[in-house]
């Protein structure tokens, strides 16, 4: 049952009380409460006509800085006399006109945003809050067909006023050493690309624009690792690259902060090819079915020594005796200092490791990230990888996520833990169809989770790597999906070369479709290595489908999976496959060992 709505009445800056009701509280308190709690609204009715003209305008400015217009109401509290009611109505209109006109003049708001703010404060918020069911009648001057349709279109496509400048100011006040902002995105080759904006320039940009954004060639979503364009793409066209300010975090090094970005069209609509927006669209589809998730990643990464003379990579020095969870792999101040610096840098960025330990491969360590809402989890994964690689590089080494750096040693993965966090998530009627949907489309999903030819060197049976069969099993690390408990599963057939926005979108889209279609779990709980099953066991469990053994095969399987293509978007899948084919063409001209080194230097 939801909490009843509460109205926080804003009074003068000096008034104070301990409760809601007929008492008034400070603007800062009302704005904070309305922003944080879904059932609290800020009422600015008490301001008119009690404060001076300047005080009224300041009150409007301050409440707009503190909370969205959808949480602001005006209650017509004119105080006892008909004349003061009329005066309050006149004054609130004047104050809104002065403040919002100034915002439009300085570029802090667009005209449609200002119109929407007035509609929210004087009509829409109260109409929704009290369930009045009234229709907003446009002014006579806007009743022509052209004007009304244009205004409605603008209100649909332009979001409410942004708090980006407030977010950045608050962040910089707490982190005074930051000089540069890294606005970054993960492209189709899973390359982190970045633009650096000096802090002073970013603040200047936000004085005239509600969002921090720059122009980026639309070809950015069709580049290979060597900056050549994929076949059929031209350098024409431009997208907006908008910083998603709530993702702002310290790092990966002193003096820098990082922000994840999204691609937008010129009309502010999402670019259908934008990696982050593809995942966001998938999550919206899941939310429409009442599904929400917690996701956590394990970062496996190999530290390698770098020659001081020619820069070549080799097995980590002083790593003899390295083994899974071995204390020997933590001997020496050099390695523990690096690990502690990684931990401290991640913590400063708000990423709190759950644990870290040596892994099986020589020089390999695992860092376990916390379970977070899906988008936050993927964003944090990108940040964490950048921080780890940067810290290790500062110590003269290389950290690589290459799936199989040593032929006869364990591979390197990026296992995903996922659970359905919505209220019914642990009901078998919900989570079994979800994972049944994933298993049904797993051969096609592999094109995203094993996105590089090197990924398939790791895909082996009997190596705790998820194996080569479509299967699941309770606490079975030889199956692609390991059931941990209830809706908590681990996806094992995924590595650090994947664009995790794409991989996560594919996994959740397939699972959500399983719930929607009430998919039956036709595969039995496999409690042994699927590769060792005898024919009778294989038939009983339904384990009879092999995963693709190469990227080429996985891409073909993806294109044949019409349902998954439709769920993710045909245009996106076409671009993704074209990019992967471009990569394969690029790799074809390299010797195997040269390609391995080339890849380790980039991932």
Automatic annotation (TrEMBL):
Keywords: Ligase, Magnesium. Residues 275-603 form the GS catalytic domain. SMART domains: Gln-synt_C. Its cofactor is Mg(2+). GO terms for molecular function: glutamine synthetase activity. It holds the Pfam family Gln-synt_C. The keyword Ligase applies. InterPro entries: Gln_synth/guanido_kin_cat_dom, Gln_synth_cat_dom, Gln_synth_gly_rich_site, Metal_Hydrolase. Belongs to the glutamine synthetase family. This is Related to fluG protein. The lineage of its organism: Eukaryota, Fungi, Dikarya, Ascomycota, Pezizomycotina.
């Amino acid at each position: 049952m939801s909490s009843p709505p509460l109205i926080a009445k804003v009074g003068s800056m000096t008034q104070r009380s301990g409760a809601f009701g007929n008492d008034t509280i400070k603007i800062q308190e009302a704005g904070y409460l309305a922003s944080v709690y879904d059932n609290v609204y800020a009422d600015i009715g008490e301001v008119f006509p009690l404060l001076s003209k300047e005080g009224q305008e300041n009150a409007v400015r301050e409440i707009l800085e503190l909370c969205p217009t959808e949480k602001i109401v005006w209650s017509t509290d004119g105080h006892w006399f008909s004349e003061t009611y009329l005066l309050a109505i006149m004054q609130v209109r004047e104050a809104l006109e002065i403040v919002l006109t100034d915002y439009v003049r300085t570029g802090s708001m667009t005209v449609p945003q200002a119109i929407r703010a007035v509609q929210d404060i004087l009509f829409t918020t109260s109409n929704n809050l009290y369930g009045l069911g009234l229709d907003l009648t446009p002014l006579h001057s806007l009743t022509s067909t052209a004007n009304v349709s244009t205004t409605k279109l603008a209100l649909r496509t332009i979001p409410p006023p942004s708090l980006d400048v407030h977010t950045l100011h608050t962040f910089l006040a707490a982190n005074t050493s930051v000089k540069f902002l890294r606005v970054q995105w993960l492209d189709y080759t899973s390359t982190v690309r970045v633009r650096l904006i000096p802090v002073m320039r970013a603040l200047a940009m936000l004085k005239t624009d509600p969002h921090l954004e720059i122009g980026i060639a639309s070809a950015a979503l069709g580049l290979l690792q060597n900056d050549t364009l994929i076949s059929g793409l031209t350098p024409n066209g431009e997208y907006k690259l908008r910083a998603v300010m709530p993702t702002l975090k310290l790092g990966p090094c002193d003096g820098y902060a990082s922000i994840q970005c999204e691609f937008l069209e010129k009309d502010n609509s999402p670019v259908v090819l934008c990696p982050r927006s593809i995942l966001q669209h998938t999550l919206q589809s899941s939310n429409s079915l009442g599904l929400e998730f917690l996701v956590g990643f394990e970062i496996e990464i190999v530290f390698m020594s770098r020659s001081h003379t020619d820069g070549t990579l080799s097995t980590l020095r002083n790593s003899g005796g390295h083994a899974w969870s071995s204390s020997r792999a933590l001997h020496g101040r050099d390695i523990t200092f690096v690990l502690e610096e990684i931990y401290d840098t991640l913590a400063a960025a708000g990423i709190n490791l759950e644990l870290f330990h040596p892994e099986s491969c020589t020089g390999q360590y695992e860092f376990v990230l916390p379970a977070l809402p899906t988008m936050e989890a993927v964003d944090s994964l990108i940040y964490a990888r950048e921080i780890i690689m940067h810290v290790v590089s500062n110590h003269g080494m290389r950290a690589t996520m290459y799936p199989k750096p040593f032929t006869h040693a364990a591979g390197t993965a990026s296992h995903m833990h996922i659970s359905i966090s919505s209220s019914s998530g642990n009901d078998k009627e919900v989570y079994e169809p979800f994972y049944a949907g994933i298993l049904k489309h797993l051969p096609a999903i592999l094109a995203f989770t094993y996105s590089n030819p090197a990924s398939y060197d790791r895909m082996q049976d009997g190596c705790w790597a998820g194996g080569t069969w479509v299967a699941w099993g309770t606490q079975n690390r030889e199956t692609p999906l390991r059931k941990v408990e209830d809706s908590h599963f681990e996806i094992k057939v995924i590595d650090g070369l994947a664009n995790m926005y794409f991989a996560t979108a594919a996994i959740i889209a397939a699972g959500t479709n399983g719930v929607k279609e009430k998919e039956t779990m036709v595969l039995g709980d496999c409690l042994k290595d699927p590769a060792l099953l005898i024919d009778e066991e294989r038939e009983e469990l339904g384990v009879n489908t092999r995963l693709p053994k190469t990227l080429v095969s996985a891409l073909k399987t993806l294109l044949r999976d019409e349902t998954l293509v439709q769920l993710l978007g045909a245009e996106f899948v076409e671009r993704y496959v074209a990019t992967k084919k471009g990569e394969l063409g690029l790799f074809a001209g390299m010797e195997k060992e040269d390609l391995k080194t080339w890849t380790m230097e980039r991932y």
